Predict the structure of Probable carnitine/acyl carnitine carrier.
Amino acid sequence: MGTETAVDGVPQNEASASSAATSTANSIKAFIAGGVGGVAAVLVGHPFDLTKTRLQTASPGTYTGAIDVVKKTLARDGIKGMYRGMVPPLLGVTPIFAVSFWAYDLGKNLVYAANPKRDTPALSTTEVTAAGFFSAIPTTLVAAPVERAKVVLQVQGQGNLPPGTKQYSGVLDVVRGLYKEGGIRSIFRGTFATLARDGPGSAAYFAAYEVTKKALAPKGKEPGELNLGSVIIAGGTAGVAMWSIAIPPDVIKSRLQSAPQGTYTGFIDCTRKTVAADGIGALWKGFGPAMGRAFPANAATFLGVEVSRSLLDKLF
């Protein structure tokens, strides 16, 4: 048997076991806290998201702007119309945001593993950005089908679908219909577009949050200490940073996921046809509602994450 090395008086195998347990506990807490934050985001932000999606996918001339979308939606369906299509993200938001924050935590661990002999435990902005980009990769596998179902439900509420388009009664009906239409491939349509949106977007998202929270940390306090005012402002800023660069791929994602089968062959084809038909400005449709949603929804997200994480830290 080999000799057992001690680190700070603790046998190495015991130290490794303790470190592994701590890492697992942190991953679990990141997963749960992300889910709580996601629910908060949907409750606050869904009306803005619906408005954005309808602007992005409607035929030219259907709406004059975001306010017109809201007015026509309220006139047609009342206040409940502003929450049409909320069930898919609400059901899927726990795994989406849970995986996102879990993957961000994992991304930070990978950064630490890549540079174990670091001068300070604090990650640089570049390292946070890399961890943020990484978080989008596993998250996309969950987000793409949820977004697909959400977009289909949101768009059919406009009432101007092409003749013969199937009307769905709810999220399960959407999933069944999409599978019957084109199998798993149909359910996951728009996956590359989702990653194209969320990769750079998540990099900006987490970097902006960490940088802003650090800048707003009260004198004498560490950025990690819970300060609700700083969390709200930093969370809102993170959302603005993400959506300031995410709208063009989001437009393509919405069009890919809402179009009848065979309309586009993929991301590049959809981009080319969108610009050819509606001009380059079409890639920024929905920018107003997205930015209007960005601050409150993501302030709610990070508030939910930080408060729940603080409570979880006290439990285990």
Observations:
- Residues 12-57 form the longest helix (46 residues).
